[in-house]
């Protein structure tokens, strides 16, 4: 659609416009719910998608998330006994690898609804699920309570943050803080960092925006992956840590 003389609507702008139109007719529906519903219909038709479903452009589905998982394993303190929450796990492109790597009962995958998770469960296979006993749930209050009690050592969110609609960002960051409440826990998520908004991402902001949104968690590092000079944008992974209480002095001990 053209906007003025020769100015063309971008795919991001088109999605935002379509969502706002949909929300005007369906009050209360979030952008995440709307986008998730469209993605479920898309992948269940067998359409090719970059990150969701079984048609990811690889002959072996397991190869699709391998490089992402290898990067995470290099950067962050995963061990087989780590208790891990995958927030926005989708159809388990990345989560499937952690289900396979972690000890039984150590993986918890959460997504907007169970629709994409069920697609992922089929792709991972019943045998591995029976062996590893992962937990799953939709992003609702019962699941959030259960996941908070899981006491995760590591919480991560792959390719989610920069798709978050800006007015839903407080919910997203609030949920991440709630799940990473354990003292010493690591939180990391893929991020777009820029001083000004960028067309292809719904959410892109300075590092200070994220540190404020996640306080009192402490920023550890921005792991830069790619820089787009013209847009003054960095794509990478932001790592946070939940503060540990100061050690008790001898006179405070019983």
Polypeptide structure, described:
- There is one protein chain.
- This protein has 254 residues and is an alpha/beta fold.
- It has a single domain, classed as Vaccinia Virus protein VP39 (Rossmann fold, 3-Layer(aba) Sandwich), CATH 3.40.50.150.
- It is built from nine helices and seven strands, in the order H-H-H-E-H-E-H-H-E-H-E-H-E-H-E-E.
- It has a seven-stranded mixed β-sheet with strand order 3-2-1-4-5-7-6, with helices on both faces.
- The chain starts with 10 loop residues before the first helix and ends in a 13-residue tail after the last strand.
What is the typical, i.e. mean, pLDDT?
87
Rough outline: globular
Number of helical segments with 4 or more residues? 9
> How many separate domains?
1
CATH 4th-level superfamily: Vaccinia Virus protein VP39
What structural class results from the helix and strand content? alpha/beta
Provide a concise account of the structure shown:
The protein has 254 residues and is of the alpha/beta class. It has nine helices and seven strands, in the order H-H-H-E-H-E-H-H-E-H-E-H-E-H-E-E.
What features would you highlight for this structure?
254 residues; 9 helices; Rossmann fold; 7 strands; alpha/beta
How is the topology of this model organized?
Blueprint: H1 11-25, H2 31-44, H3 66-75, E1 84-87, H4 95-101, E2 107-111, H5 115-124, H6 126-132, E3 135-138, H7 141-149, E4 154-157, H8 169-179, E5 186-194, H9 207-214, E6 218-228, E7 233-241
Parallel strand pairs: 1-2, 1-4, 2-3, 4-5
Antiparallel strand pairs: 5-7, 6-7
């Amino acid at each position: 659609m053209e906007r003025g003389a020769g100015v063309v609507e971008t795919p991001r702008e088109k999605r935002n416009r379509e969502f706002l139109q949909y929300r005007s007719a369906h009050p209360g529906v979030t952008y995440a719910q709307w986008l998730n519903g469209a993605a479920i219909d898309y992948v269940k038709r067998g359409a090719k998608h970059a990150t969701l479903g079984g048609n990811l452009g690889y002959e072996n589905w397991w190869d699709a998330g391998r490089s992402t998982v290898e990067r995470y394993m290099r950067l962050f303190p995963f061990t087989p006994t780590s208790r891990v929450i995958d927030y926005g796990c989708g159809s388990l492109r990345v989560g499937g690898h952690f289900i396979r790597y972690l000890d039984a009962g150590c993986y918890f995958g959460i997504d907007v609804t169970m629709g994409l998770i069920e697609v992922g469960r089929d792709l991972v296979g019943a045998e591995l699920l029976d062996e590893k006993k992962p937990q799953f749930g939709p992003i609702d209050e019962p699941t959030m309570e259960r996941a908070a009690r899981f006491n995760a050592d590591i919480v991560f969110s792959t390719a989610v943050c920069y798709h978050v609609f800006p007015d839903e960002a407080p919910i997203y960051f609030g949920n991440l803080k709630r799940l990473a409440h354990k003292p010493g826990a690591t939180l990391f998520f893929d991020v777009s960092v820029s001083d000004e908004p960028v067309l292809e991402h719904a959410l892109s902001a300075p590092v200070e925006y994220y540190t404020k949104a996640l306080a009192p968690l402490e920023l550890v590092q921005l792991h830069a992956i790619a820089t787009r000079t013209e847009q003054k944008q960095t794509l990478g992974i932001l790592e946070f840590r939940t503060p540990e209480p100061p050690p008790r002095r001898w006179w405070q001990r019983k």
